Amino acid sequence: MSxxxxxxxxxxxxxxxxxxxxxxxxxxAGFLVVGAGMxxxxxxxxxPVGVGFRLLPPAAGLLRRLSDRYRARAARWTGRPLxxxxxxxxxxxxxxxxxxxxxxxxxxxxxxxxxxxxxxxxLLAALPLALVxxxxxxxxxxxFVWRRLGDGNWYAFVPVTSTATMVTALLLGLALIAVxxxxxxxxxxxxxxLTHRLLSAPRTIELTRRVARLTDTRAAAQDVxxxxxxxxxxxxxxxxxxxxxxxxLTLDEATRxxxxxxxxxxxxxxxxxxxxxxxxxxLRDLVHGVLPPVLADRGLADAVRSLALDSxxxxxxxxxxxxxxLPSPVESAAYFAVSELLTNAAKHADATRVDxxxxxxxxxxxxxxxxxxxxxxxxxxxxxxxxxxxxxxxxDGTLALHSPPGGPTTATLEIPCASSSPxxxxxxxxx
Amino acid sequence: xxVVLAEDLFLLRDGLTRTLREHGCEVVASVDNGPALVRALAxxxxxxxxxxxxxxxxxxxxxxxxxxxxxxxRPGLPVLILxxxxxxxxxxxxxxxxxxxxxxxxxxxxxxxxxxxxxLRTVAAGGxxxxxxxxxxxxxxxxxxxxxxxxxxxxxxxxxxxxxGRSNTAVAQTLHISESAVAKHIASIFAKLGIEQSPxxxxxxxxxxxxxxx
Lengths: 431, 214
Prior knowledge:
The complex is a heterodimer of chains A (431) and B (214). Chain A is built from 12 helices and 7 strands. Chain A is of the alpha+beta class and 431 residues long. A 5-stranded mixed beta sheet of chain A has the order 3-4-5-7-6, with helices on one face. A 6-stranded parallel beta sheet of chain B has the order 2-1-3-4-5-6, sandwiched between helices.
C-alpha cells in the first residue's frame, strides 16, 4: 500500500491498534505456518521410504489452505488481489499424486514461503508487539511492583529503585508503547508486501494465464463473428436475394403479357409490389439483428428504452450514464444482453414487471435487470444466458445471476470500458 | 400543397419529387442534409414537410431531431417522417406534443402512392398518421397487458387503416365493406377503448394512440 493510501486510511488512533491486533494475529498464525512447514518437510524427508508419497498430498493441501488464508488476508489488508497459483495437482494413486505435487511450481512456492514466513513475517509482526508489551510492563506494572522487588530490579537500562527512576521507567514504557504502535502499521504493510511477493503467482504465470484467456476469448469472438456472418449470408441469400430474383421473373412475365393480357399483367405487377415489400421487411429484420438502428442512432440508453416500449411487460428504465457514447462494440454487447434478459423475464419467469438500471462508474458499465417473476433461473442451463456470457467474455465482462426459487431474479452484467469523449451530433463530421 | 422534402438519396428524392408533382403538390424546397432542412423548416412557407429520419451529416436521427426542433418553434407544423424502420421510441417522441399534424411511416409505404398522398393530406390537415407496424405493436402490447378488451380481427384492421390516416370511405373500399359498417366498427373500437367520440375526424387516431401508449 502506498504511504498516501495508508494516510488516507488514517493510521492514527484506532488504525494503529487495529494494526497491532493484526501483528498479534500474524504472530499466532506464524506457529501454524511453522507446523505446516514442518509437516511438509517431514513428508519430504520420508519420501525415500515411500510413506512420504502418501503423506505429501494431505500435508501440501494443508499448507495450501494456510497460504490461501494468508493470500486472502493480504488482499483484504491491501485492497490488492493476489493471483493464486494453479490448484494442486491430483494423482490417480498416492505415488502419482505425490510425484505430481513435487513437480508443481505452486507447491514449492508455498514451501519456500512456509520456511521464510516465520523468520521474516514473524519478526516483522513481533517487533511492534514486543515493544508495546514491554512498554506496557514498564508503564503499567513497574509503578506498582518496584517497591517489592527491591534492588536489582531493572527496566531496560534503568535500575528502578526510587520514585524518580520509577517515573523514568514509566515514561520509557510509554515511549516504547508509542514507538510500537507507530511501527505496527508500517510492519503490517511491509508484511502484506512480503506476502504479495512470496505468495503471488509469478508474473510469467499470470501472463501465461492472461494469454490463454485472451486466446480463448478471441477464438470465441471469432466463432461468434463467423457464425454471424454465415447467418447474414444465408438470410440474404435465401431471403431478400431470392425474393428479388422472383420479382425480376414476375416483372419479365408481366412485360410480356402487357399487350396480350393487360389484366393478368396488372395482377402480376401487384404481386411484384407485394414481393418487394416482403423483401424490404426481410432486410429490415436482418439489419435489426445485426445492429438495431435505434442503437446506432441514439446509443445504449435510448435503445434500451425502446426495448422497454416494445416489451409487453411493465418495464422501468433508470439510466445513469456519462454523456456521450460508449464504445460501440460494448453498447452492442450490452444491448443484446439486456434484450436477452428481458426476453427471459417474459418467457421463463412469468414476470409482470421489470426494472432495468444502467450505470457507469468511470471504468465499468453495469446493467442490472430485475424482474418480479418466480426465480430459479440457472445460468448454466439456458442457451440464451450462455450466449450472453460468451458475448461478455470477449470484453472481460461478467454476468452475475441472483435468482432464488420464488424470485425475484436479478441479473447484473458488467463490462469494463471507459466512456469515450462525448460525441455530439456535429463532431462526427461527414460520415 | 406546398411540400418541403428532405431525403439524402438522390434517386429517392427524385422519385418522391415526381410522385408529389404528379399529385398536384408543389415541392418548394428539396434538401439532402440536416442543417439545410433546419433552415428550410424555419424559413419556408410550407403546408407539410416530408422528412427522412437519417440525414447527413451524422446519418443518425438528424431528420427527426430537425423536425421536433422545428415543431417547437412552429407548434403544429405538419411533418411526415419516413424511415427504413419504425421505432416505438420515435413514435412516442413525435406524439409527445399532442398537437397532431404528424406522420411516421415506413419508407416502403411511398410505393402505394395513393395511400401515401392520402397520409400526406391527413397530416397537412392536422391529423395523425402512424405506420401499421407501430399500431400493431401497440395493440399486442396493450392486449397482452389485458388493459383493453381485445379487439376483433376486423376491428384491428379498421383501427390500423384509421391509423394510416385513411377516411371511412377509403377504409370501406379497402376492406370491401359498407361505410356504415366501418362507422359501426369505429364506434365499437371507441367503446372498447373507452374513448369519447369526437366530431373531429382526424383527432381520433391521436386519441387512440395517446390511450394505447399511456
